[in-house]
Known about the structure:
Elements: H1 3-22, H2 27-48, H3 69-100, H4 109-116, H5 145-155
Helix pairs in contact: 1-2, 2-3
Transmembrane segments: 6-23, 30-50, 70-94
Subcellular location: Cell membrane
Protein name: Multicomponent Na+:H+ antiporter subunit C
Amino acid sequence: MTPTVVLPVIIGGLYAAGVYLLLDRSLTRVLLGFLLLGNATNLLLLSAGGPSGLAPILGYAEPGEMSDPLPQALILTAIVITFGIASFLLALIYRSWRLVRQEVVGVDEEDRRVARRSSTDADEIDPDDLAPEDRPAMHADSMPAEDVERVLARDYAGIPSDDVDLPPTRGEQR
């Protein structure tokens, strides 16, 4: 392989690995996938900048011999954006770990309901035609807030929570 083919192959591999990791339910893998996408984008911008040249700000070289400063500015911007989103994902991972002692996003009841109705078109569904347990939250006849609090207190009695405003939760599936 020639050097002109190696860099695009590496960029494509980083993008493929990043997308693969983004599709996982583990938040740590999502973070790693996002970091790989950020690095692949930086390499893509660097390769799009063309060959290196002299510094454009000094004015010693002719315009054809100078480096293009735009890709460098875009790479710096991409680094800052990647850092900001990575720190946000780290905060989500930490919060998820503190609440449920696991960093994997679990399958909840709404996911199961959607999977059961996957063959139904969303335009054909009228909430009034669905069974009460399949109706979306905040529908006219959904469970009152007092009943929700009573059910949560019954199901999670004695399980400590680290947040005063949130009900206690369990890490395992029922």
